[in-house]
Design a protein that fits this description.
Largest sheet: 8 strands, mixed
CATH topology: Rossmann fold
Bound molecules: ligand GEK
Order of helices and strands: HHEHEHEEHEHHEHEE
Radius of gyration: 18 Å
Number of helices: 8
CATH superfamily: Vaccinia Virus protein VP39
Structural class: alpha/beta
Distance between the termini: 39 Å
CATH class: Alpha Beta
CATH architecture: 3-Layer(aba) Sandwich
Helix content: 40-55%
Strand content: 15-25%
Length: 243
């Protein structure tokens, strides 16, 4: 059973920047499910996309894998294919607290492995599928283009990048509307106004969202041949970019 996220339930005098520590890892499935509209769909469809794009004798990566939800979705969809040969699925995260909780779950899939590394420094190779579900937004903006460039260079032709992010809208009216709708979504999932506002403060300097236009322009500039949004709910979206 998922432990309920109560991290911001009581008033906190001085709110520290959000980190992916043991406290967060312990409640993460509940936290992300109640905070990110469409999370289950994005995870499930990441599996479906991997099932289609993962090539035999190539690697699949999930950069910022947290507890490995997308890795398991990928492994099951690839496993259903029947013709799958030698497709290692590698989860990268720099939170040891998250990865410690992955170990027992991962034992049911022998092609899944984990590495505790920074996305900025991790080495990827021979990749047919790269997933970044809500992790690029935590990386300093000035590093994002170089990181995506490096990923692109290490992907095979025809490979896919799945990039899911919280987004901002260039139209100020729509931006405010979607921020409010996201807060309504969180309230509908049982978070109080205090929890929503304290979490927002904790994330303020840590999660820096960009517009869909910024993401799409950058992916095209790097060289991805095809790029589009395949999912959006309020200020959360997921793109596919194909090399
Ligand atoms: C899911 N994809 O369940 N290097 C490595 N990992 C990082 C870095 C970095 N520089 N920065 C952040 N992370 C997951 C959800 S959560 C999204 C991803 C969220 C890791 C961080 O430790 C955390 O586990 C993950 O990226 C972001 O589908 O909580 O909003």
């Amino acid at each position: 059973m998922n432990t309920q996220d109560k991290i911001y339930r009581n008033r906190i005098d001085k709110i520290a920047d959000f980190t992916f520590d043991e406290k967060v890892a312990a409640v993460f499935p509940d936290m992300i499910q109640r905070s990110v509209p469409g999370y289950s769909t994005i995870v499930a469809m990441t599996g479906v996309l991997a099932g289609r794009f993962a090539k035999n004798n190539s690697n699949c990566y999930d950069l910022g894998c947290s507890l490995g939800a997308s890795l398991y979705a990928m492994a099951s969809e690839i496993g259903k294919r029947g013709d799958n040969i030698n497709i290692p699925i590698i989860g990268i995260d720099n939170s040891q607290a998250m990865l410690d909780r992955c170990k027992t779950i991962s034992q049911s899939f022998n092609n899944i492995s984990f590495r505790c590394e920074d996305i900025e420094k991790t080495k990827i190779s021979n990749a047919s599928v790269v997933v970044m579900n809500f992790s690029l937004q935590f990386i300093p903006q000035q590093l994002r283009e170089d990181i995506l460039k490096r990923i692109y260079q290490r992907m095979n032709d025809g490979g896919i990048l799945v990039l899911s992010e919280k987004i901002i809208f260039e139209d100020k009216h729509l931006d405010e509307l979607n921020i409010n709708l996201h807060h309504e979504f969180k309230k509908a999932n049982g978070y109080s106004d205090l929890e929503i506002s304290q979490k927002r403060s904790a994330l303020e300097n840590v999660l820096i969202p960009e517009s869909l236009n910024t993401h799409e322009q950058r992916l095209k500039k790097i060289g991805f041949k095809h790029c589009d949004v395949w999912f959006q709910c309020f200020n959360f979206a997921s793109l596919v970019a194909i090399k």
